[in-house]
Design goal:
Elements (H helix, E strand, L loop, with lengths): L10 E5 L4 E5 L7 E4 L2 H21 L19 H18 L22
Antiparallel strand pairs: 1-2, 2-3
């Protein structure tokens, strides 16, 4: 069985305000870390988890059981996906405007060899 530190959920999110990634541990109050890359934030918060648990043990505080489970979206079945795509395509067809083909709208950026001109 893994040590409790390895069983806590870590939530990683970009912080526009801070200009970096924040990794937090919902089960451990105020346990978080900041880094420029998500994988560094995870590495930093792993150290923070160990420190949080060690401090709690030293102070004789209870160690919370890992409980937080991030929401998981149900996968869309093939038939529902097909139906939604058809609805989107039909809606787009109804709103399409005449004019140059969107696939060719940036051709002027490239020369005859397909390289930037």
């Amino acid at each position: 069985m893994p040590e409790p530190a390895n069983r806590y959920a870590i939530v990683i999110a970009w912080s526009e305000k801070d200009g970096g990634w924040i990794a937090s541990v919902p089960d451990l109050k105020s346990c978080s870390a900041f880094a420029s890359k998500p994988e560094k934030a995870v590495a930093e918060v792993s150290v923070a988890i160990d420190a949080w648990l060690a401090s709690a043990r030293e102070a004789g505080l209870p160690i919370p059981e890992p409980r937080f489970q991030p929401p998981v979206r149900k996968a869309i079945d093939r038939e529902t996906r097909r139906r939604v795509l058809e609805e989107v395509r039909a809606s787009a067809r109804g709103r399409a405007k005449p004019g140059p083909d969107a696939a060719r709208s940036q051709d002027f950026l490239y020369d005859d060899d397909g390289l930037p001109g």
